[in-house]
Amino acid sequence: MRWVLIVPLWVFLDQSVTVEERGYSQVNTCVDLPTFNYKQKPTTSRVQCAVACSQEPNCMSFSIPMTGPSLCYLNNATFKHTGCSYGTFKHFSLEKSPERPCWHGGSYNTTTSDCICYNGYIGNWCQTLMQDCSEGWNLPYYNKLKAVFSIHPITSPYPFKVFCEMVHKGKLVILRNTPDALNVDFNRTFTEYKDGFGDLEGNVWMGLQRFHYLTNHRNMTFKVVVKTSGVAIKMTDFRQRFYNDFRVSNETDGYRFTFSASEIKPGTSALGDCLTDMVGLPFSTIDNDRDTKVGNCAKIHLSGWWYKKCGPCNPMGKLQPTSERIQNDDPWYIHMPIDGDLAALEVKLMLSYHG
Ligand SMILES: [Ca+2]
């Protein structure tokens, strides 16, 4: 089933999620910098300071200087309203009380005594903001869970849903191309590749714009996993390769990617490298040919990708028929750099934070 992106007007307004919407309210108090201040961080806005506070389990309030939000002061207790408002700081406290036990706009279920969290927050009291899957992985009760979560990367103007695998520091699915889920056609337009398509729990492409938001402010590791099968070994196998500090640029720049290093990890079977040669190339689709070939690689392979002339891989190509266990030369099938006479039967591209 396809999921349709409904993009409300407010997503285009930067910082449209206000401090108040993040669950903090300004407190009138004569306290200057409180004794319960425990950390200071550089910041450029009140919203950024609120995000910083919401990512720390012990942060209950934050303060910023009246002269401007150059430094964000994180505090481990809340302020009391005194009706007094002079001082050199503005203070913002989490709204949490016996009447409103859930933070950041979460709703309380009196039957189960649980908070139902929204807009990228998780935790018993919706206290933690998820920027990718790593924050969920840090909370023991999501351990090993594979499910859809709402996240809100700090540079994204809106929260959005992703599929997280809460293993190995928390992995987020960018692409899943598998025969184990309903078929999704990857032969799509540039707009569709930009916005994302497919089913979050099945075959899916998360979208280039989200890929950009997920990688433009944190050091993310991009993982390519290919499931193979061969006549000789008659068993499935997984080949993997990792790309450190992976970044995708913005739409104006053509969603080009960079990374610092490519590596194989001990204990995993090696997958060849098909991305190094594509660094600096814009993303190509059937209706936006930006490859360096005279023809259109996206039309040849029936899928979008970072193509050159055209290149050694097309992870969004058609799946090999299950009866065919050797590599098929037709260009519309998935091709991945696997040693030997093996077909790529499934591809997953994932991101994880290794801050
Ligand atoms: Ca071309």
**Integer average pLDDT:** 86
CATH architectural category of the largest domain: Alpha-Beta Complex
Inertia-based shape: elongated
List the ligand species: calcium ion
Full CATH superfamily name of the largest domain: Gamma Fibrinogen, chain A, domain 1
How many structural domains in the coordinates? 2
Please identify the structural class as seen in this structure: mainly beta
| Rg (C-alpha, Å) | 23 Å
Biggest β-sheet, characterized?
A: 10 strands, mixed
Question: How many beta strands in the DSSP annotation?
Answer: 21
Q: Name the helicity range.
A: under 10%
- In DSSP terms (H or I, runs of 4 or more residues), the helix count works out at 5
| Sequence stretches where pLDDT stays below 50 over 5 or more residues | 1-16
Distance between the termini: 34 Å
Strand content: 25-35%
Q: What do we call the CATH topology of the largest domain?
A: Gamma Fibrinogen, Chain A, domain 1
- The CATH class of the largest domain is identified as Alpha Beta
User: Order of SSEs, N→C?
Assistant: EEHEEEEEEEHEEEHEEHEEEEEEHE
Describe the fold and architecture:
By secondary structure, the protein is mainly β. It folds into 2 domains: 20-94, Hepatocyte Growth Factor; 171-353, Alpha-Beta Complex (Gamma Fibrinogen, Chain A, domain 1). Helix content is 9%, strand content 28%. The protein contains 5 helices and 21 strands. The chain has helices at residues 46-54, 134-137, 190-195, 208-215, 297-301, and strands spanning 24-27, 37-42, 61-65, 71-75, 89-94, 107-109, 114-116, 121-122, 128-129, 146-151, 160-165, 171-177, 197-198, 204-205, 220-229, 236-244, 247-248, 257-258, 261-263, 269-270, 343-353. Strands 10, 11, 12, 13, 14, 15, 16, 19, 20 and 21 form a 10-stranded mixed sheet that branches. Strands 1-5-3-4-2 form a 5-stranded antiparallel sheet, with helices on one face. Strand 17 (247-248) and strand 18 (257-258) form a beta hairpin. The longest helix is centred in the first third of the chain and has 9 residues, at 46-54. The protein is elongated, with a radius of gyration of 23 Å. The two termini are 34 Å apart. It binds calcium ion. The site of calcium ion has 5 residues, from loops.
